[in-house]
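User: Can you predict the 3D structure for this chain?
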Amino acid sequence: MKTKTLLSLFCILFSFSSFAQSWTLKSPLGKSRGSSAFSIGTKGYIGTGDRGGAFATSDFWEWDQATNVWTQKANVGSPYWLGVGFSIGTKGYIGAGDGGGFQGTNTLWEWDQATNVWTQKANMGGPALREQAAAFSLGGFGYIGTGTDKYVCPGSTNTSYKDLWQFNPGTNAWTQMANLPGSARYGATGFSIGTKGYITNGQDQTLNFFSDLWEWDQPSNTWSQKANCPGTARSGLVSFSIATKGYMGTGVDKAGNNMNDFWRWDQAVNTWKQMPNFGGKGRYWAVGFSIGNKGYVGTGDSGPVCNDAQKVEETDFWEFSDTTCLVTAATSSDPSITVCKGSTVYVSASGGGTYSWNTGQTTSSIIVYPVVTTTYSVTVTNTSGCSGVVTITIPVDTSCWVTTGIAQLNTEHHVDIMPNPMSESSLLIVSGVEASEPYEVKILDMLGKEVRSINLSGRQNTIERGGLNEGVYFYKIIFRNKSSSSGKIIISRQ
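Assistant: Here is the predicted structure, written as structure tokens:
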């Protein structure tokens, strides 16, 4: 059996980093408010809207995430503003908006990404007039719900809706789903996660503003109320989803304040957490969508609400990265180096408040002795509750064996330490020495620095822990004939 003759100690250091979420300014689009948007693959799409006094336009633009470039595509079949957008597969949909006469429509247009062609689809069910609705797509279907019949300022004689309709692209047909149990509303927003659709916030015509969140379950066609958003109730906001989290923000509140705060809802625990504020000005009637693990928000109106003469159409377009709990790993030696079976590997993590290893240990540092190639991982959680996981694999050469941390260079003497690990003291038993034969015991830390030297004699002695901290140490016993024996001592908790 081969024996490693060098110090078989490998230090693996994990570093934990927590970064704040961030907004990054991307290429701007033309001035617009009340547009509709969706994403397909790595492309985002914004179209229609109020542009420079034209209260309903039909232009349509594609944004490439890889190049950050906007390209104009074929115009939507009808002009809209304050409509909705969603996507199913490689098809995008825009509709149920104001056609320019300050009243909604029930039309829907489908865009084919492959051919860049728009096709009119079946009119939406329910009221013939609908705008400022909420929409999402889920499981191959599109959904539009809530909204109002016409564009008027709050307190005027418009009507709010609470119905939800499903669009089947295969049959080009609409089916009514269960009504939203909450208040009828318009200016709400919708997103989807898994088999669930969500509608949140909005207002009604009597100046009631809402911050409630409603979850619709597709298999059962039932609604359930979730935790209210802690932020101010608002209308004309945006939302999107990334993985199992929903994000919402911007909009205008009951007092007419334009909002730029942003919030994240966690589906797993039904809790909200405030995110860094949106990167641009507070605004309403902006658009939002996600691509992969990024969110996007842009355009909108940062002027006073219900004052078209003083509207401020925005052009900026922002990317949101929710990079909380980004964890990076570093090693003090090349992790590709293969160790022998039984080598002592010291693994340490830092930057957190608590640690949970796949070995079951909960200290920041652990000691392992792999006898086969093994992967070690640690979940690091900081004081803000941000968690992340890092892993590293230690390759093991099973043809060589290390019986101690330092190779036994002397075959004349056999050394035992009992118990090992040591708590307060251990018995040192040395065979092959005379009863009064002197020898020196040197204790080294993991970096090879001598931390204690003890002069002993005879075959059996008690060695004390003293002030040594918990960890792995190495001993070297030097005999009078200058031969030596080496090994390791593990100091456990007191």
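The two ends are 37 Å apart (CA to CA). The chain has three domains: 2-16+327-398, 22-321, 414-491.
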